[in-house]
Amino acid sequence: MHLVEATDEQKVQRDVLTYSEWGKLLTLEEYLSREQRLRTHPWARSDMRTWLLCDTDGSVLASCETFRTHSFLRTPTGPLVPGDSFAIASVFTEERLRGRGYATQLMDLLAARLERQPRAHAALLFSDVGPRIYARSGYQELPAWNWHLSPIPGDPNERVNLLPPEDDIGRALERLRYPDSPFFFWPTPAQLDWHLERGRIYVEKLGCTLPSSLGATTGASTILWGLASRNAELLVLMLDARSPDEAHALLGAARREAHRSGLSRVVLWEEPTHAPLLSSLEGATRVARDGSLPMVRPLRPDLPLAPLLPVPRGLWV
Ligand SMILES: CC(C)(COP(=O)(O)OP(=O)(O)OC[C@H]1O[C@@H](n2cnc3c(N)ncnc32)[C@H](O)[C@@H]1OP(=O)(O)O)[C@@H](O)C(=O)NCCC(=O)NCCS
Questions:
Q1: Which of 53, 100, 223, 227 is the most exposed place for a label (fewest CB within 10 A)?
Q2: Among 90, 133, 137, which is best to mutate for testing ligand 1, by the most ligand atoms less than 8 A from CB?
Q3: CATH number 3.40.630 given to 145-288
Q4: How does pLDDT run across 92-107, given as a tens digit for each residue?
Q5: Strand 284-288's sheet: what is its strand order?
Q6: Fold classified for 2-142+292-315
């Protein structure tokens, strides 16, 4: 068995097979067109690869995708060392081939390949099938809690400055502080826009409207959000709140934006620094995340993996 990069034709062949798993709400034709559209997005064009585990006769046994993302190592004296990390998505084995270790073999060969990349830091994935299968390939699970907030009527502009949709995501992202942890992932502006592209695809199916803002700021605090999945929810992609008061103001704006856009709730992925900011937030519930369990595998032996490594929703693939 060996690992190869898929050709464009092979990618479409895999799309036809994966439709039954990931095509909910869409016809096959719409799913194929969604995949094509997402692959032509600037982030995917520059940083996405599709990988195939092939048998000796060339037949495909399993597949997945990688998206390169930025990450940083904090040296003991302070300076940050930038590198590349790889978010892994769409791990798939056809039903007739399951249970023979092919997905595990794919993950092992892929990690060995990624380890040879010159600036490699870590691989990151979001398991929908629990931790066990990926733990076998060296992935460690991280906490996965969500905060759910109900929409509320009112002007989203109250107490915050809303970021208009045409605003530069890069400029907004630059306002956010890097996490304190010795190692962390950090999305690019194109990466965040790729999430919004998903929302642009799904909005017609959902009976809601696209939020008319990218997020909000107040004081030095910033939140970035969007419709980014096949659920009519406002997903918080990134949140840097400098105080409980500013966190409450930003999340209040998110709740009003969700109401204005006809979305059913606001969803925030909890990061280690959020707990003290959110504990007194009314109308918010903390729930164990259903699926999308973050798991990380170092791609170099000295990578310091703290259990408190933040994984915002903006890193999901
Ligand atoms: C998950 C998947 C890729 C595994 O492929 P595979 O080639 O059968 O994987 P392996 O043979 O290497 O490992 C199989 C293990 O995965 C586990 N697994 C598969 N589906 C699972 C699920 N839905 N929940 C929990 N575990 C699951 C099996 O129980 C088995 O575990 P065990 O060996 O400890 O009993 C395949 O079932 C699949 O394509 N599923 C649909 C798409 C999907 O959910 N992909 C994962 C997204 S994170």
A1: 100
A2: 133
A3: yes
A4: 999 999 999 999 999 9
A5: 161-163, 215-218, 221-226, 233-240, 265-269, 145-149, 284-288
A6: Aminopeptidase (3.40.630)
